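I am still learning, so would you mind making up any protein sequence you like and the tokens describing how it folds?
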Amino acid sequence: MRDEFRKPYGKLYTNPDDIKSQLKGKKVVCVGDVISANTLKAGIEPDIIVFDLKKHRKEVDGKTRRLLENFTGRIIKVENPSGMITKEFWEAVKNSLKSDEPVKIIVEGEEDLAVTPFIMEGDCDTVILYGLMDKGFVLVNINKDIKEKVRKLLERMN
């Protein structure tokens, strides 16, 4: 099922400046170290960032680390192994989406499937940005069709 989870849930972009107008009035979630840092560098203030301080399973550079660590928000630390979504992580997603203040979820392990609970728990006023392995990043507008697609994938995982 790895190939199915690698397929983009939305449109692929390479420059955060190209999406600024699509983010107005939305709750913005960034999943991944590089997209979170690039979004912050572009002057976009996400509501939630999710990161593990790694890029391709190696430590991120100092500049990226500082950007992520300096993001002001409530901190939620969770453990989440690669290829899994723990109950603890899913609860962190739900709590972060309910928050009225910015949140940063720091993952010990991997955030590789983090988009999944955000799609399932987010409302249609939520936009998710996540990196796509050196190709750019994907913008996902949550709607009932994407929720149904992800629900079916989750059923197959169980």
The chain has one domain: 2-157. The chain is about 35% helix and 25% strand.
